[in-house]
Amino acid sequence: MSAAAADVVAPGRAPDGARVPLGAYRALAGTAFKSLLAYRLQFFLGLLGNLFLLLSLFYLWRTILREGQQPLGFTWPDMKAYLLIGFVSGTVVSTYTDWRMAQRIQDGSVAVDLTKPVDYQRARLAEALGFAAFELVACALVAVGALAVFGGVAVPPPGTLALFVVSILAVVPLKFTIVYMSGLLCFWTQSYMGVSWARLALQQLFSGAMVPLAFFPDWLRVIAEVLPFQAMAYTPAMLYLGRLEGAELWWRLGGQLGWTLLLWWAARAAWRAASRRLTVHGG
What we know:
single chain, mainly alpha, 11 helices, disordered N terminus
């Protein structure tokens, strides 16, 4: 069969125009969660990489902050909390969503995805939420273990804690949009390996997950502040530490929402461009 471009379906509607039941997306999320349960050894081996990075950062910062050193006001307990939040934000919606997309784009299975009566982007979000539920449980276990070994951290007041929960949950859809768009690049590339590594490098640096943005030189901090990555680790971590107050607090929380909406619709545009490159051969 000669080339045929995939039709772009209106968001939330099946190809025949009928609205997609929410249960279809819940089923996709449940399937994604169960897939990690089925391949949990593979997941935990992958988690080891982030865990070793976390441990190396713990030992590095404990050495820097020993003997009561407080550069820019950061104490060792502050940095423990900061690094743990950076670990969580770096682990949820990590690589399963984009690598799964990339594989199905490269082997042509995406054509089968397009025959399903669901919105493609929302379906991938549902899967990402299923993965994230499992990843959050695993992160909580790692965090408890790290706190048992390195000592506890201070818990913020209830109001700040509630805003922190909102902020860390907002990381999931925000990060999904970035991961989703990087996965779509497979429509233009032969391999996803380089794209994935580039995304992870940019994310680790500009999110401030390893080094708070306050330690960056001015020119690099300005660049980081205008990119969406800082909303994935720096914002929830600084909120937890009580270093965001007043207008800056609401500005950064609003920034998380604003970036999510902006990137969500940018992803829509990217999908429309990518789907025009889709060619299906066969009978």
